[in-house]
Design goal:
alpha/beta; Dihydrofolate Reductase, subunit A; eight-stranded mixed β-sheet; binds NADP nicotinamide-adenine-dinucleotide phosphate
Amino acid sequence: MKLSLISAISENGIIGSGLDIPWSVKGEQQIFKAMTFNHWLIVGRKTFESMGALPNRKYAVITRSQLTSNNKDILYFTSTDEALSKLATLTDHAFVSGGGEIYKSLINKADTLHISTIHKEIDGDVYFPSIPKGYQKVFEQDFSSSIDYTYRIWKKIK
Ligand SMILES: NC(=O)c1ccc[n+]([C@@H]2O[C@H](COP(=O)([O-])OP(=O)(O)OC[C@H]3O[C@@H](n4cnc5c(N)ncnc54)[C@H](OP(=O)(O)O)[C@@H]3O)[C@@H](O)[C@H]2O)c1
């Protein structure tokens, strides 16, 4: 299974404040919507609580609690390894979609990183981990918006 990671990060490395994303950038969410359409997203319980289940996406939610769902498109797992094993039987491509704890646990396993840098220093308390060595930037595009941002794709060097 291919594993991609998708995130938006401020200039000072912030991805969240409490449960929220502390900015609103016109258009930037379209990248997330387009990339993840009809795919499985791996999310931490806090991110799932915060964003809820968007239509046309399926969720593997990581939690230490024993939670269950009647919805076949929402599965709960007590570890990221368990989620990856099950998803490998269901799909050939899944997206690590936050938040901070889940990015930190899985960034090393991601084949591709889709990262929008929001060109502003923003207050918050949830940080993105450093991009590990061994990734190469393969795409970059600047966008002008309510806050300018740059979308980059990084690929793991095989
Ligand atoms: N900017 C972006 O692109 C972006 C994207 C997504 C989210 N966010 C932001 O990120 C923030 C949330 O991030 P966060 O780090 O606070 O929380 P999180 O990663 O969304 O979720 C943390 C929760 O995941 C579960 N968990 C984590 N590691 C686990 C493990 N090894 N085994 C079992 N369960 C585990 C635990 O759930 P339980 O407590 O239930 O056990 C933990 O409390 C929010 O502000 C959100 O808006 C930003």
